[in-house]
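ok trying this again, last paste got cut off
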Amino acid sequence: MGLIFGKISVETPKYEVIKSTSEYEIRKYAPSVVAEVTYDPSQFKGNKDGGFTVLANYIGALGNPQNTKPEKIAMTAPVITKDSGEKIAMTAPVVTKDDGEEGKDKRVTMQEKVEKLRMSLEKDGFKVVGDFLLARYNPPWTIPALRTNEVMIPVE
């Protein structure tokens, strides 16, 4: 029941907060292993989350693990999305908290929020060194307003 209401019950990456403002948080993550798949959503009838099924099969979340051992690997969060691919990742140097992938006002797009974050980081002297990633911590059946989603942007 807790997952529906936004409880995060899986392992999440450990980090050190380097700087915290009202607009963002700079975090330093320890190195970690990443399971990643890049796919064409048309392979999954346009389902943009189809790559997650591939990863879930790999770790054994949906039955027998599809890895070389084969052994089950614990589910972790967040699931990282970039472009049209899905990634399960543990590291990213910059994170901002958001109340949903597109937020409550549907006229404000993720790209506008990312640009605002980039401008804040650059104004504070950080150099943006990569594209943004969307980190999703909750399963899809979590009530949208209670989900933990973060935008991650690497900086120097």
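PB: full thing came through this time. The beta strands are 15-20, 25-29, 35-37, 79-82, 85-88, 94-98, 133-136, 149-152.
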